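tool_log.txt
---
The assistant was asked to compare two proteins side by side. It first ran the structure predictor on the initial sequence, then on the second. Raw inputs and outputs are pasted verbatim so the downstream comparison step can read them without reformatting.
(1)
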Amino acid sequence: MAKQPGRKVKLPAKATPESLEKAAYRYLERYATSRANLRRMLELRVQRSVYAHATDKNEGLAAVETVMTKLDRLNLLDDRSYAENRALSLLRRGASHQAIRAALFAKGVEEDLIRRAIEHLRQDWSDPELAAALAYVKKRRIGPFRVTEARRTNRERDLAALARRGFDYDLAQKVIDAEDVEDLEKSAAS
């Protein structure tokens, strides 16, 4: 991106132990996050500082470790809780187990915690995958939520939409071809 004339380029802040700690607290105030994601954010700040201010990368990374240790000691980072809450949020928005797994993995959550978070969803739903598929079709107004005349012509398109979201074919077919959505919702919830 070219610099516009008369406009100052804002340099990133210098990565000091104090600035990294303040950045971590600000980030935690705004976002729920995993340990790995917060570490990644702080290391990126160090990298930008090295590039912009020629600070020592090793000192910056040592400061990141100090901040992470302090946050752990204060119990401000809980990957299990983060994974469970994020999985629940994604499920309510219509994400399949596969999509939830990918999202949590991208945030640096360990595989064991991802598996537990997905199992934790069964406390609220007997079939969380069905609940997610129903949430997705309802949000997109596809399948049983389409106008009756358009359901048949858009069936393949609706099945493909669910497949792209990570739902298996049998489940997609069950949801898209459903005549009574209330029965499906009951079987997902009970």
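(2)
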Amino acid sequence: MHLPYTAWHLSYVALGATLAEHTDGARLAWTLAAFMLAVGIAAHCLDELNGRPLGTLLPARALAVASAVSLAGAAAIGLWGVDSIGVYLVPFVVIGVVLVLAYNLELFGGALHTDHVFALGWGAFPVLVGGFAQTGAIELPVVLGAAFAAATSLAQRSLSNWARRLRRGGLRVEGFIERTGEGREELDLAVLTTPAEAALRALAAAHVLLAAALVALRLS
């Protein structure tokens, strides 16, 4: 499930819910459950099914079943919420299902498997859904929160793309860094990837802590 990234993107759901005019703990919990199934489980299973980026040995059938059941569960939670939130929740459910399938399976020739779609689908979208699930409307603070999430998701993508390219495809690094008054530092994969990976860990923790603070504020 790649827990740091999953927690990071679940924090966007909480951000949207706490930026809404009012925050209901039960609705937030169900929204988090739906995104946990869709993003935390289904998306990662489909991603692994499509290219084994995490290098697991899970059978393809198990990945397919887990992704199908999880995505169906997420959609069921969304459709169940229509009764209390309103029919305009249905387009969000449909968009969510399409995003998970198209992005992670690289459908349509990979046209939706881009950094900007990632920023909108994994950053802005959870914030919008988190807010809409609270009030049945898209409010300005939630829209601004979605813009924040899209921007930080782009930063995440830039850092992770750099580190992933080196970790998974780097065969050899040559060169060194010389600084005034310091010795020569030889370049290797660790030197080039450690700052990006440390920044990603810190950003994941920061987003989760911010979401927890906002939830505590609104539900206290």
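---
observation on (2): The first helix runs from residue 3 to 19. The chain has eight helices and two strands.
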